[in-house]
């Protein structure tokens, strides 16, 4: 099925999204991006295409409304408000699980920057409803005490030249009690702009979701 523009209607706001439902997909991967990015981010779009080619359904959406993003660009009051981002992601996940077309699919999260903290926080909140998490150049450390409560298999991917973020990921990794891996992509900086590095991330993510969402689908 081609990608379709959708509206995620939550109690207080409507969020724009792009939904791609792949036939017989073992899971649905929701994308949580950091502030200043959007569902149209070329990086997330590339990863989403790779996941769909691997048989996954994808949902890219904006954690903030256009008005919130506009205000946040000046005040920067939401970009590190992890509880706010966690609440939005968890609400969007519940919205997806209430839809017939998505109800029986395993759920995965792909988070980048502060979106990784939101993904881990929402995974801790929703428990067994979330079956896998992947972080790209993320700030999982910002999930705080939620890290110990995450049960979803979690893959942390960091660029080899993103030195400050490597140490933050290592600290978060130590706090995780779930199945976990930390992988370093040599020669990559924070945004994985170097040739071929983002493709490596996408393939790692696709394999992680195939292994863990596929496992849940078979168990179900």
Summarize the structure.
This protein has six helices and eight strands. The chain has 220 residues and is an alpha/beta fold. The model has no long low-confidence stretch (mean pLDDT 90).
CATH fold-level topology: Rossmann fold
What is the share of helical residues?
A: 25-40%
Structural class: alpha/beta
Q: Can you summarize the main beta sheet?
A: 8 strands, mixed
Beta-strand content estimate: 15-25%
CATH superfamily: Alpha/Beta hydrolase fold, catalytic domain
Distance between the termini: 24 Å
Integer average pLDDT: 90
Tell me, briefly, the overall form. Answer: globular
Q: How many discrete domains?
A: 1
The CATH class assignment is Alpha Beta
- Gross CATH architecture: 3-Layer(aba) Sandwich
Pick out its properties.
220 residues; Rossmann fold; 8 strands
Please characterize this protein's 3D structure:
The chain has a single domain (4-219), classed as Rossmann fold, CATH 3.40.50. The protein has helices spanning 42-53, 66-75, 82-97, 114-126, 163-175, 197-219, and strands at residues 4-9, 14-20, 27-32, 57-61, 106-112, 130-136, 154-159, 180-185. By secondary structure, it is α/β, with parallel strands linked by helices. It starts with a strand and ends with a helix. The protein is globular, with a radius of gyration of 16 Å. It has an eight-stranded mixed beta sheet, sandwiched between helices.
